[in-house]
Amino acid sequence: MRTSPRRPLILKRRRLPLPVQNASGETSEEEPKRVPAQQEPSQAQASKEVAELNSCKFPAGIKIINHPTMPNTQVVAIPNNANIQSIITALTAKGKESGSSGPNKFILISCGGAPTHPPGLQPPAQTSNDVKKTEVITETLGPKPATRDMNLPRPPGTVLGQRRESCAGSEAASCTLDNSLTNIQWLGKMSSDGLGSCGIKQEMEEKENCHLEQRPVKVEEASGASMSWQDSVSERPPYSYMAMIQFAINSTERKRMTLKDIYTWIEDHFPYFKHIAKPGWKNSIRHNLSLHDMFVRETSANGKVSFWTIHPSANRYLTLDQVFKQQQKRPNPELRRNVTIKTELPLGSRRKMKPLLPRVSSYLVPIQFPVNQSLVLQPSVKVPLPLAASLMSSELARHSKRVRIAPKVSVLGFSLKRDSGRLEMLDLQLPKHSANKFECLLVLLADEGVAALPTAGPVKEEKLLLGEGLSPLLPVQSIKEEEIQPGEETLHLVRPIKVESPPLEEWPSLSPSFKEESSHSWEDSSHSPTPKSKKSYSRIKSPAQCVSEMLVIKRRERREMSRSRRKQHLRPPCLDEPELLFSEGPNTSQWATEFPFLADSSEPAAQLGYSQAEEGPFKTPIKDMLPISSTPSKSVLPRTPESWKLTPPAKVGGLDFSPVRTPHSAFGPLPDSLGLMDLSTTPLKSVPLFDSPRELLNSEPFDLPSDPFGSSCPTDIEVPKAGPPEPQAPSLSANRSLTEGLVLDTMNDSLSKILLDISFPGLEEDPLGPDGINWSQFIPELR
DNA sequence: CTATGTAAACAAC
DNA sequence: GTTGTTTACATAG
């Protein structure tokens, strides 16, 4: 019941969330969300069948089939022993067959089987389908250059985002930089067109262009594997708001985004919110931003713009793309459930609120792939295609924002990663206008010696950048020096796709300051009218205050906690005791020395520092300076282990959008850890008191690397970052997804995309392709 | 009980 | 009107 006058009177909502016949039964307000036509066929079967039916066989046992779920995508099954020539031949044939408008994505997988051709299948029909698909995409995407560009599947590491932001000029740069394959896949799974329309946020464009409904699509049906377009739009994405916010923010180069941009990003990537969801979803977004400590609001230098960022210690750098891939690889029950629910329950019975986020039980920690050294190979100069030549520049251009991307210029990037002979994924975007995109592909293959595919050797990653005038290797580093920290750039280039989750050890979460912060709620403590920095992880409140507060709070926390959710503070699980070492905390510089990664300027993680002179962004002052006790907050609860239960990050089966949790073990490396720990157990008294967080801030110089994304650009750049500029980037790079290959992308909107996924058999690897599909299901040879 | 979603009151711009 | 913060309640697991 509501006691407080302030409390909104909550009317009984959803009194009857019961399975009702009609969707309408859910809520009167429920808009006609559910399009009654969402019959979902059982995908697996359907897709399989279709795939088989549509597969085409080529010499050497090479098979080309439609991707079961991805539109415009074909899977090329290449027998182990097939030689490059055969591949080329097959692709060439296919290319001719399809013409320039054919499918624009190809996933190459190697099948262990020799050319023992399984029953060849009839290609004809399928081919036409493909063509059609391509056309659809082409049509939709083609017209909107900018938009399209955005939507192109792009590996996370791509620099696009950055560029965007910078281009935008304003910090608000809405960067839709999405990177992702996901984009297309998720939306695309419904129909790639969706993306086309929603890609970007040039708002104007957006408004006009995004009439998804109008899209002439229906491509999916061909494969029978994907949901209908309508479904895709009407179907709520399986991600929680928190997750989506993370995706949005992480999609930007600077890992920050304005509220508005977050809205836009979500709308663009999840049409559901744009077309179906009730306007209240935005409220929910705001609610989430405010609620979760992991989201930190930063104010621009001029104080006019506020950006939402993800606290580095909590940021897993998850992107939609990454998550999507993970999901595909190991479809977890939850996700599947969504689908299932949809199919199985009567529309009306679907619960209004379905779990969007995998629960803790299914947390997934980004898979740590073997650390491979990336090799930048000499661009194959041989690539004769004019195409190749033209391809190069755009990438560069993108990196250095000054370079204007010529309409026809595109970049070709090519990367091969051979991990124990396992797979590679090439993501190529070729100029659509090229005579035959296959040529490009073939050239690449040949050039790269793909024939050697089955190379099973030491783990090795090679990356090839092809460029015309470029010096053979675009020095990775030199590519874009301007706005991005070296580390990042390199990362992008070298690893177009970056696994966004660095090893836990790398997270600064354990830093004393953070611990302290996370363990306490400085908010409540400030009895002073001073504007407090809302959730400043690193900003602070006096420890003493925290302590006292905690004490007070503790008594009621339990009781009230359950009832009200205050800020969900980040809190290292390992800390049982609120350690207030904070005030005395080691300064960053020290950390930097000892833990370079903490000092990484390129890393978003470096943000803590803004507390220093500039006190950084502050949250809107909280009006209720009431005694903390007034509202017990979970976050304040120092020893509520529950709040930060260690969810074994080890799990790899699900998705975890929750903030990074640091395992106890992670502490190990910290030299001071022991001391800190001890202190933590020590009563806070030892810590100096401050009347306000601000005071604390002023008195305590925290040398943490300042926020790379500082509200003000200048600041960001200038902030001296202690330590090597590589901290996180390197580590990130170290963990690379095998599935990520290279991306060629182009700013040119008239590009087609070819996505190659080359798998090398012989690995203990499961048959799952990088996209998580079990190809053996479709391709017997793979078994 | 927790995590999440939704609604709403309010405050500051 | 937008952005943020909070509180309250609902739901699913």
Automatic annotation (TrEMBL):
One of its GO terms (biological process) is DNA repair. One of its GO terms (molecular function) is RNA polymerase II transcription regulatory region sequence-specific DNA binding. Pfam families: Forkhead (PF00250). PROSITE patterns: FORK_HEAD_1, FORK_HEAD_2, FORK_HEAD_3. It comes from the Eukaryota. It is found in: Nucleus. The keyword Isomerase does not apply. InterPro entries: FH_FOXM1, Fork_head_dom, FOXM1, TF_fork_head_CS_1, TF_fork_head_CS_2, WH-like_DNA-bd_sf, WH_DNA-bd_sf. Residues 236-329 form the Fork-head domain. Residues 514-526 have a biased composition (Basic and acidic residues). Its main location: nucleus. Transcription factor regulating the expression of cell cycle genes essential for DNA replication and mitosis. Plays a role in the control of cell proliferation. Also plays a role in DNA break repair, participating in the DNA damage checkpoint response. Promotes transcription of PHB2. This is Forkhead box protein M1. It comes from Prolemur simus. The gene is FOXM1.
